[in-house]
Amino acid sequence: MDLVLRAIVIFVVIWVVTRAVGRRELSSMEPFDLILLVVIGDLVQQGVTQSDYSLTGAITVIATIAFLTVLMSYVSFRVPRLRPVLEGEPLVLVQDGQVVDRNLRRERITVEELRSEARQNQIDDLADVRFAVLETNGRISFIQRT
Prior knowledge:
By secondary structure, the protein is of the alpha+beta class. The chain has helices at residues 2-21, 23-27, 31-49, 55-78, 83-87, 101-107, 111-120, and strands at residues 91-95, 98-99, 129-134, 140-144. The protein is elongated, with a radius of gyration of 19 Å.
């Protein structure tokens, strides 16, 4: 039972940390970020299982985290009011060619990064953008003016 409680606590901590880090940072990982993720995974494993290296302990922790992941997905699906809290909401970064500075600051995105994303989508100028939306998966969607 101790392993289950530890897994639940770590799951909640990881969920809070990923929400705090922000969508944009998670979608554009650098090599250092990947290494850091592996190190964090090892530290989490040590914190959850302590010195329990048994197969039963590993299966218990994996099953608990998998159950919590499915449970959050189910709750998000069944309770639409909780969806913005659990998954986040898309965020408008550009509206009718005008950059929404408040939302850029909120997600810690520079105008240069936004322009770079636009160029990667074959958009020369942000003035040509009707909407740019930061999706919940961290990607930016562009809708051009017609």
